[in-house]
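Trying the structure run again after the queue cleared.
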Amino acid sequence: MKVAVIGCGRMGTLLKTTSEAHGHEVLGNFDIFNKDQLTEKVDVVIDFSHRDNVSWVCEYCKASGASLVMGTTGLQEEHMNAIQELSQTNAVFFSYNYSYGVAVLRKALQMLTPMLEEEFDMEMVEKHHNQKADAPSGTAIMLLNAMDPDNKYEHVYGREGMIGKRGHEIGISALRGGTVAGEHTVYYFGQDETITISHNATSRQIFVNGAVKAAEYLVKQNPGYYTMDNMLEA
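Done. Tokens:
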């Protein structure tokens, strides 16, 4: 494949070197400051950068016909709308987390929550490095949606003060520090028992490997919107 990587930081560097190790040609690392240098057509764009890049990246893909693997977090409605619109004409792969283990965790939460929610209180804690800009993480939001797809619960992001008795809610807490690549733990608190399910990423490489695998999968697909579920079932 011919690849363009969006983002010039550590993730962008890992995406470039890993893509090249898989035998793909990488034109370079691009962002909003050097986007004019991306003049050639590529087979796929891999974007794990910042939401400020979403608009021009979608415009480039639409004009060039490139497929898009999107892993940027902290997106707002306008960004998601642009990505969804692009999927009408281009192949688009979207996930907040490209780890195979997290994909399986999400499936597990979809299965477990309906069996436990009547008798158990549910909480989530996510941990990331001290450079992460958004909170809660995109992965935490993805897992929360798996637990509560119909928005039946109030989502409480942190607690402070005289909050009173717990309501019909799921609590989400975000911790930031050091070099933690990513840890997500879901708790089901019952009467005299607790079920804990956790995923711990020890390096960013697992996300990079998943993104490159997604790119290799995506270039074989027709225009449309694809997720980790599609790749797991392929």
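The longest strand covers residues 182-190. Worth checking whether this holds up in the mutant runs.
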